[in-house]
Amino acid sequence: MTQDILPSLVSRLLQKNKVAFDKKELTFQIQSHPSYPSLHAITGVLDHFKIENIAARIPTDEESLNQLPETFLAQVENDLVVASRNKKGFQVLGSSLKAESWSVKDFLEKFGGVVVAVEQPEESLDTSKNSYQSNILPGVTGLILLTLLFISGPAPASIIFLILALLGTGISLTIVRQESGISTSLGNTFCSNASEKKDCDAVLNSAGATILGKYKFSDLSLVYFISLSLASIVGIIQGQNVAGAYYLSLLSLPVTLYSIYYQWVVIKKWCLLCLSIVGVLWAQAGLAIFTTGLNTPLTTDSVLLLSLIVLASFGLWTYLRSQQEELRSIQKARTDHFKFKRNFELFSTLLHQQEAIDTTISNKEEIVFGNAQALTSITLVTNPFCGHCKPVHGLVEDILGRYSELVKITIRFNIRHDDPESELVTITTRLIELYEKRGKDICLMAMSEIYGEITVEDWFVKWAECSDPDRYLKVLEEGKAWCHTHKINFTPEILINGRPFPRAYDRPDLIYFIEDLSEANLSQTTAEAEINAMA
What we know:
Blueprint: H1 5-16, H2 23-31, H3 39-48, E1 53-57, H4 62-65, E2 71-76, E3 79-86, E4 89-93, E5 99-102, H5 104-110, E6 111-118, H6 128-134, H7 136-152, H8 156-179, H9 185-191, H10 200-204, E7 210-211, E8 215-216, H11 217-238, H12 243-251, H13 253-267, H14 272-290, H15 300-341, H16 344-352, E9 367-370, E10 376-382, H17 389-403, E11 407-413, H18 423-438, H19 440-450, H20 456-463, H21 469-485, E12 493-496, E13 499-500, H22 514-534
Parallel strand pairs: 10-11
Antiparallel strand pairs: 1-6, 2-3, 2-6, 3-4, 4-5, 7-8, 9-11, 10-12, 12-13
């Protein structure tokens, strides 16, 4: 499977299951995952977006298939496909991104047993509102344009010529996106399933598709049709003749002959998108020849206007093209950076370079979230009034939401405790009291609010003050003394099994390594147990 297809398949899976997602961010997260393009990259990214999912191997029989959702990812003959159940069996979308209909029997013959399924949210995704809002501006613009064209009362030939120019613009834009590796419906329809005689990529990426060693014919095609569209619109609205556009369409005919010759004789493969452009150019030239278009004399004004539009379109596209290439380069560098940064072996090496310290204290009344028996222990040294601690508390919530069984998270306050009446002492003692008397969930909720945007006054109104602060001051005193002993003077500080979180990483990166840390700690514990058993 082509690696770039994987984000498209996952996007289709989520769309079919009506799960809301950011396609651009989804693509980035999948491609930057260290194990890309494996199934682990898919499930890891789905976990990252908090999308309920499961990857499993199931029996290859009809009964097991019936237990799956309507749409799921499946391994079929060493390929990954999106399978959607229908009346005839399954609609299958594979690496070619062309949908095929398979019977249940055909599917089972090719099915490898590995599936990835997502849970459909209780509230179905309603994209109609977002789609409506995103189409307001183009819709209003089109309505105004149609009104102006109607008022101008143009000849039918002028309208047809404009429609052809707009059609050519759309096809040219599709070709540009196809060259950039961006999936489009039109590109998938015309360019999927390459064969001995048909291969869009072979034509578009060939040497003959470039002119002057810098510009591709797709760029010139897009500029050409945009210029014709603008010239036609301006001419129609102003009541001027568009003879310049008609004559320009005739000059394009030699290019179409070159394109056909190059595909037929040199490459010996056809690009259906390129042939579509040829068809549009011939239609425009025929319209110019067989209507009164060429009987309209050229004027200096019309030639100057067309020249200005062509130059402006070319200059604008050249600038946008350079920006696009720069953005693509930045995106690739960003993807490579995150893929490198999320490599667990690198993270583990940097982590174990840190000197480990003993994080235990004698007092057992500290706040501990997650699984107290977990092999991965995270100690968070924090302060409710510390601005930098707020996002770290959000990280703690994310980790607990996804990996509560894999981690033990100890909250240790580093605060001044010599003033029992201070707001800071009152808040922290109340948090410890809530943890002891009302449980983890209530304590976590209260912590979320004090680390959030709520005012101290409002927090006290909701959660009240500690009923017996003297009882919990001992916890604060021991926490402060421990911080002093180990020279932890600033908050927040994150310790993983006693080792400081590596400074080369951003704290939010921790969530990407929880599973790997748990597996590594389990392997180490198992190995130590085996050694002890042999001793």
